[in-house]
Write a structure and sequence with these properties.
alpha/beta, Purple Acid Phosphatase, chain A, domain 2, eight-stranded mixed beta sheet, six-stranded mixed beta sheet, 30% helix, globular, hydrolase activity, Metallophosphoesterase, Calcineurin-like_PHP, Metallo-depent_PP-like
């Protein structure tokens, strides 16, 4: 089924037509009927900003994620050994009763061939998250499990918000879901994440002296009755997942999937690093799934190891046999095929499964790690990203001259990147001074007076625009594994009914495992 859908999806993608990008949305998708209400959260809400303060505090006073993670891991290993330990309260009833592997291994019965979904940065609980669900359910039919890479719950990872931001949207996905946390999940001290995915009781409070301890947001107490009600939405035996900790390794006959926890400030603590080095010695090929991408926006940003070096030192070691590294956190899709010695490692950003879209038109001509521009892939296309932002600002600032049609934006970006337009332009387009000035102000290339279009926009200005109308430019991955080959496919979700019925295939890469 997926092979047929993929072949059809290639002809329906944004790389082929404006309709495939969702610009000509004849009918809204069914996702609108799945939402429990019309309310998301607002970054403009002062309470929300205050609850999210741990990101700023971690930058100013140091990130305690490593120490807290070590406590969570110690508590889980005590549970695995059948001892109470001293870290957890031990007062929360178990939902699964599953045993915990001391090396944090997950061993589902997968067989030689299987497939799974990967969703990144999902949990806003609004239209942009629910828009992904219909296509995900269609393409995900028959998959063995799904993974969420980073930021399961926005804005602060609270265990009391999993109902409408995790259990409800995926209630009809008939397989287990595993996850690795993102920085937003850590704003709750990982309490909600560990309770939901690892069935862990809360840690005992540990005072943190100084200004950080005074200001730091403490984990929110979970309403167990409310959580039990939410769990019932995914209560079938086929949907249950037993996850040992915030990082883990999933084993199959011919592939390991290694999930790592990058905390708030993208540093891997010594305990997790030692575990990662042990896991990586296994002779089977591997995929790394991480909360932070190693390459993004034509820049190299590998997670630092607390002991020195970076996580990419482990990924690139030929003895470890990593074939791909997939990271969330950045809310779009990017793929960098990087030549490392005599092999190619696919470095992928996949964070577009629910949260607000981060711009791609700010990515210049790609040359990172020797990757050629023609071999780089992104979604949305840079031209669609530029046109999207031009429409938003033209409307909100009442500056009609900022507006660039998809064709105009495609041509402006092609001139800047110095390549042929990815999509065939409908009729001649004359690039004018107005278009270039609009692109400058919208951040298409470096300029001192650019309008905010990336993370600043996401954090402070996103609610100034109506994010409940297509196209959303969301995406998810379908990954299929056979004894000799791994196939990664990026499918799009626009919010339009046409793309729900036949999800567009925006990218595909096949990787040998022999």
């Amino acid at each position: 089924m997926v092979e047929v859908a993929a072949e059809r999806g290639k002809q329906l993608s944004s790389r082929v037509s404006e309709e495939g990008a969702g610009w000509a949305c004849a009918q809204m998708g069914t996702f609108a009927q799945l939402r429990p209400d019309r309310h998301g959260f607002s970054w403009l809400n002062l309470r929300t900003l205050w609850l999210s303060r741990n990101e700023i505090l971690a930058g100013l006073f140091g990130d305690p994620s490593g120490q807290v993670r070590a406590r969570w891991v110690a508590a889980q290993k005590s549970r695995a050994a059948g001892t109470s330990g001293t870290e957890s309260t031990g007062s929360t009833p178990s939902a699964t009763g599953a045993e915990i592997d001391p090396e944090f291994r997950i061993k589902p019965a997968l067989g030689e061939s299987f497939s799974f979904l990967l969703l990144g940065d999902t949990g806003e609980g609004d239209a942009s998250q629910y828009a992904v669900v219909p296509g995900m359910l269609k393409i995900g039919e028959g998959t063995s499990f799904a993974l969420i890479a980073s930021d399961v719950i926005y804005p602060t990872g609270s265990g009391n918000e999993y109902g409408d931001k995790f259990f409800r949207p995926y209630k009809d996905y008939d397989a287990p879901i595993y996850a690795i946390p993102g920085n937003h999940d850590w704003y709750d001290g990982l309490g909600g994440f560990m309770r939901v995915f690892c069935d862990a009781p809360p840690l005992r409070p540990k005072p943190d002296r100084g200004l950080r301890g005074l200001l730091w947001r403490k984990p929110e107490k979970i309403d167990e009755a409310r959580l039990a009600e939410a769990r019932a939405l995914r209560g079938k035996p086929s949907q249950q997942a037993a996850q040992p900790g915030p990082y883990w390794v999933m084993e199959s006959d011919d592939l390991l999937i290694v999930g790592v926890d990058t905390g708030i400030r993208n540093v891997i603590d010594k305990g997790q690093t030692a575990w990662l080095r042990r896991v990586s010695l296994d002779p089977r090929p591997k995929i790394l799934v991480t909360g932070k991408p190693i390459y993004t926006a034509n820049a190299y940003k590998p997670s630092k190891l607390e002991e020195g070096g970076t996580i990419d030192d482990i990924v690139r070691d030929p003895a470890h046999r990593y074939v791909a590294a997939i990271g969330g956190d950045v809310h779009n899709y990017q793929r960098y095929p990087v030549k490392v010695g005599d092999r190619v490692i696919q470095y992928i950003v996949s964070g577009g499964a629910g949260a607000f879209m981060h711009a791609t038109h700010t990515i210049g001509r790609v040359d990172a790690a020797g990757v050629d521009e023609d071999d780089f892939r992104c979604y949305p296309l840079r031209g669609d990203s530029l046109s999207f932002y031009s429409q938003l600002y033209a409307r909100r600032l009442r500056m009609k001259w900022l507006y660039l049609t998809p064709d105009e934006a495609l041509c402006v970006m092609s001139e800047h990147i110095r390549n042929q337009p990815v999509r065939t332009v409908r009729g001649p387009v004359e690039i004018t001074r107005r278009m270039r000035w609009a692109a400058r102000l919208l951040g298409a290339w470096p300029w001192p007076f650019r309008l905010p279009v990336d993370k600043v926009f996401h954090r402070y200005l996103s609610e100034l625009s109506d994010w409940d109308t297509p196209p959303f430019f969301k995406q998810f991955l379908h990954v299929s594994v056979t004894p000799g080959e791994l196939t990664l496919r990026c499918f799009a979700a626009t919010g339009c009914l046409a793309q729900e019925v036949e999800p567009p295939l925006e990218d595909e890469v096949r990787i040998g495992l022999s």
